[in-house]
Amino acid sequence: MLIESAKKTLKDIFGYSDFRPLQGKVIDAVLQGEDCLVLMPTGGGKSICFQIPALTLDGVAIVVSPLIALMKDQVEALKVNGVEAEFINSTLNEEEQAAIIKKAVKGDIKMLYVSPEKMNSESFYYTLLQLNISLIAIDEAHCISSWGHDFRPDYKRLGYLKKQFKDIPIMALTATADPLTQKDILVQLNITGANVFKDSFSRPNIYLEARPAYKRKEVILDFIQQRGRESGIVYCLSKKNTEDLSRYLKANGISSGFYHAGMNSDVRDRIQNDFINDRIKVVCATIAFGMGIDKSNVRWVIHHNLPKNLEGYYQEIGRSGRDGMAAHALLFYGQQDYSILESFNEESERKVILNARLERMLLFAQSNHCRRRLLLNYFGEWTVDNCGQCDNCRGRQNLINGTVMAQKALSAVARLSGKLPKSILPQVLAGLRSPDVLAGGFHKIKTFGAGKELSLVDWENVINQLIGLGYLKVDYEQGTILALTPLSNKVLFEREEVMLHHLHQKIQREPKIEIK
Ligand code: ADP
Ligand code: ZN
C-alpha cells in the first residue's frame, strides 16, 4: 500500500510518527492521482502534504512557490534530510539552471521548486515535457485569484498546466482563502472537480481585539512598551504611515524599522533579516511585508488602518503566534480609513463586490459579537460558539434576544432564495413598496411587511449582524444576493435563540487608552 510506504517515509525522513488527520486524507487522495485544494492555517503542516507524495510516487514533483527568497532554505533543509531536491528561479544563472534540468531529466530529482515566472516560460514548458512528473503542487495558491490580497499575474497563467498535463495530479495549497477565492482557485487552475480539504481556520492562541482609531500612535507605543522584548508587526495603509510611525517609535526608544514596496530590495532584505534575527523588535510595514516570513515568535500584529477585507486581515494576523504560544492582534478602525479604501475601489469594474467585502471588514471591526465566531463564519466554517476570550467575549456585550427578528429575515430569504439583494431585504421586511421591491415582485411574498415594527435602518443593522454571525450569507460573486446557511435551519425550524446587539446602542465604544 502506498499510504503505508508514505508513513514510513514520514518517519524515516521527517521523524514524525503519524500524519495529522487532514494530512492523511490529502495524501491518500493525491496518491490516488486526484486533484486537491488544501486549506490549512499557517503552521497546519501543508508542506508534508506534497513532500510525502513527492517522495512516495515515481518521478519528480514540481512545487510552484512565489517565495524565491525561501526556496533556497527549503531545498537546503530537504537536502539535509537526504531528499533529492533542487530549485530553479531567476537567482540561478543559465549554466546552473541547465545543470539542474539535466539532473531532473535523468530522474535524479524528487522535488523541484520552481518560481511561477519560470513555470510560464516557453523553454521551461519544453523541459516539463521531458520530465516524468509525479505531481504539481502550487503553494500559496490564493495568489492566482485577483480576489486574494496577494494577486500575482504569473500565477494566473498556471491554468495551462491541467490542460497540458491532464493526468498529473495538481495540488493547490493556501492558508487564506474565503469562499470566493476558493472557488476562483479551482476555476483558474481548471480543477473544478478537485477534492477540497479544509482544516479549521481557528487560531485560538491569537487574542483578537479592535478599537476605534483614536490616539493611535500613543496607544501603539504604550502597547509595545508594555510588551517588553516581544516583537511584532504594525501594518499601515500608506508608505508614509510606515515611515512616520517607525520614526515616532524610534524617537521613543523602540527599535523599529519600516518596510514598503517603494524601497529598494537590498534595504528591504536587510530590514526583513534584522526582524527575523531579532535585531529589530518592530517593523512598520505595508502589506508588502510578510508573506513567507518564517518567524515563529512574532507575538503581536497591529493594524494601524482598516484592512481592505477579512481575508487580508486574517492572513496578516496569522503571522503572529506561529509557534502556538499566545499572540495578540489589535485592529484600529475608523470612518476615514473606510472612505479612503472605498475611494480606491471607485475605478474598479468590480467595485460593488470590493465594497461589499470592505463593508464586511468594517462591520467586523465595529461588532460587539465574538470576533472568532465572526471570522470563522466569514470563512464558511459555520459556528454559533463564542470563543470566550476575545475583547468582545471578555467585555460587556449588551445583547438582546433577536430570535423573532432573525426568523422573519431568514424566512424572507428562504422564499426569495437566489434573488434577493442585501439592500432590498430591509424594504421587504418593513413593507416598503419601493420601485425595486415592485420590480422584483418581492411584495407578493408572505413575509412582505412582516417587520413593520422596525425601521429600515434597524433592519439593515439586524441583517448585517445575521450575516456576520453566519445565519445568512452573501454570495459576493452575484453582487450581494443573500442565501441561507447551515446555521439557518435551526433558527427557522428549531427556534434556536439568536442573540443580537442592542439595536440602538452606540457601536463605537468609549476609547480607552490603558491596555490590559
Ligand atoms: P504550513 O506550511 O502549513 O504553515 P509547515 O508545513 O511549515 O506548515 O508545518 C508546520 C510545522 O508542523 C512544522 O514545524 C512541521 O515540521 C510540523 N509538522 C507537520 N506535519 C507534522 C506531523 N505529521 N507531525 C508532527 N509535526 C508535523
Ligand atoms: Zn470571542
UniProtKB/TrEMBL annotation:
Enzyme Commission number(s) from the entry: 5.6.2.4
Originating species: Plebeiibacterium sediminum
GO CC annotations, alphabetized: bacterial nucleoid; cytoplasm; replisome
A GO BP entry: DNA repair
Residue ranges constituting the Helicase C-terminal domain according to the UniProt record: 216-364
Catalytic activity: Couples ATP hydrolysis with the unwinding of duplex DNA by translocating in the 3'-5' direction
Cofactor(s) named in the record: Zn(2+); Mg(2+)
Domain Helicase ATP-binding: 27-195
Keyword terms of this UniProt record: ATP-binding, DNA damage, DNA recombination, DNA repair, DNA-binding, Helicase, Hydrolase, Isomerase, Metal-binding, Nucleotide-binding, Zinc
UniProt record similarity statement: Belongs to the helicase family. RecQ subfamily.
Entry protein name: DNA helicase RecQ
GO molecular function: 3'-5' DNA helicase activity; ATP binding; DNA binding; four-way junction helicase activity; hydrolase activity; metal ion binding
